[in-house]
Amino acid sequence: MILGLDECITCAGMPNIGKRICHFEVGLAAGFAESFLSRRVKAYETKCNANGEGTCEVKVEF
Ligand SMILES: [Zn+2]
Question: In total, how many domains does the chain have?
Fold first, then answer.
């Protein structure tokens, strides 16, 4: 499952710092998926505004 975040809380309006920094959103997405499915999932950020990719994208693997 891929979640696109246009207005990510962490990096909205950030300049390109060459890093993906939205660990909070990744944790949030993982937390939601885990409570919904009652099992562990893997989540990571595949795109981030702060890495010059224009948007944030979080991938959740079940
Ligand atoms: Zn972000």
Answer: 1
Of 32, 28, 38, 15, the C-alpha closest to 48 is 15
Residues of the chain under the 50 pLDDT cut = none
38 alpha carbon to ligand 1 midpoint, in Å? 26
Q: How far apart are CA 59 and CA 39, in angstroms?
A: 16
Domain around 46: 2-61
User: pTM of this prediction?
Assistant: 0.87
Residue ranges with CB less than 5 Å from ion ligand 1? 8, 11, 22, 48-49, 56
Instruction: Using the mean position of ligand 1's atoms as its centre, give its distance from the Cα of residue 22 in Å.
Output: 5
